[in-house]
Amino acid sequence: MKTLPFIYNQPKEFLASLQPKEWADFILGEINPLFSLTATKARVIGIRNESLDSKTLVLKTNRNWKGFQAGQHVPVTIEIAGRRVTRFYSLSSAPGDKNPTITVKKQNGGLVSHFINERVQVGDILELGAAQGDFVLSKEIPNKILMIAGGSGITPIHSILQDLSKRDYKGQVKLLYFSRFREDIIFYDSFAKLEAENPWLEIKHVLTDVKAEGFDFGFLTNEMLHSFVPDLTDRLVYLCGPAPLQGPAKFMLGDVKIISELFLLPNQVNFSTSSKGPKEVVLLQSHRTILLKGEKSILDELEDNGIYAPSGCKMGICHTCVCKKVSGSVTNLMNQTVSGEGEENIQICVSRAEARLELDL
Ligand code: FES
């Protein structure tokens, strides 16, 4: 794929590099911001509060939207202070719904999740990519399913349950959903409705931080798991949430078949050790040389210097930030391994410079 010069760093070069289709898109966008030959765009046509700090955006997509499978996520690009930023969010509606929805919970320090919750309004335009992800139903849907979710990990599960409801599913699903306190429960009303309308569904809400009448309290235990699901070994498990839920859950589930999606928060990437001294990074396409401190990921340090490379999740999941390292060594902050000096593709959101680098950026 051709990499364009950064529009904000080199606007003249960017415009000069536009192809006929891209010019057509530019003009169509001036007529109606939803129109495009190439880009998948969506207008926000509704906003719902789902919990104290999460909102659902109801979207009207343009003709380039190819749909999704329940449980998938989608890259959402949004302009914040003149800068295009991309993050992945799970779709929360059923695939057959006329207007897809995404549900976004504010994350600590999450620029985009805060922006969406506080600033996005009905009428705003978002750019979407193709839906992706393997946290989906298999062709043959099992008769017995257990779903375990924590926090915003509930979003793809909400989509799957909506889908099962539309398909007139006849099996049995139990959902164990962990939230910090009552007002933190996402989709509380929607789940109550789903449960009332679908006899195959049983939901247990568990609060982990603040007790409330009528709700279970505590973290996942073997006892909780087996008393809620005595037939655990007969079930396929869908598990979605942060690492502190997933680790113990996987241990307790043992040999039970699990389909899981990890929501890794940026502060779970280990930035605690920094490299020794500043490192020179040469950006070959931009013809710039920057001095990085080696204290953060390359992506973050470039942004600190006003250079915005393509990025998405910033957690090492989406691969939007992958770029070619032509020379030099980096540490992968996910597993603390140090690379060789040679040419390879790296995820700059989870890589730290260890030596002078040449990047194809
Ligand atoms: S931004 Fe998603 S992997 Fe780097």
Helix and strand arrangement:
Elements: H1 11-16, H2 20-31, E1 40-51, E2 54-61, E3 73-80, E4 83-90, E5 101-105, H3 111-118, E6 125-128, E7 144-150, H4 154-166, E8 172-179, H5 188-197, E9 201-207, E10 216-217, H6 222-228, E11 236-241, H7 243-253, E12 258-262, E13 279-283, E14 288-292, H8 298-304, E15 322-327, E16 330-332, E17 337-338, E18 344-347, E19 351-353, E20 357-359
Parallel strand pairs: 7-8, 7-11, 8-9, 9-10, 11-12, 13-20
Antiparallel strand pairs: 1-2, 1-6, 2-5, 3-4, 3-6, 13-14, 15-18, 15-20, 16-17, 16-19
The structure holds FE2/S2 (inorganic) cluster.
User: What fold name stands as the CATH topology of the largest domain?
Assistant: Rossmann fold
Shape: globular
**Unreliable segments of 5+ consecutive residues:** 1-5
Report the helical percentage: 10-25%
Q: Termini, distance in Å?
A: 13 Å
Architecture of the largest domain, according to CATH? 3-Layer(aba) Sandwich
Average pLDDT reading: 88
Tally of alpha and pi helices: 8
The total beta strand count reads 20
Taking all Cα atoms into account, the compactness measure Rg is 22 Å
> Which assembly state applies to the chains in this document?
single chain
* Domain module tally: 3
Q: What portion of residues belong to β-strands?
A: 25-35%
Structural class of the helices, strands and pairings? alpha/beta
Q: What is the strand arrangement across the widest sheet?
A: 4-3-6-1-2-5
**Main beta sheet strand tally, sense and closure:** 6 strands, antiparallel
Q: How would you spell out the order of helices and strands?
A: HHEEEEEHEEHEHEEHEHEEEHEEEEEE
**The top level CATH class name of the largest domain:** Alpha Beta
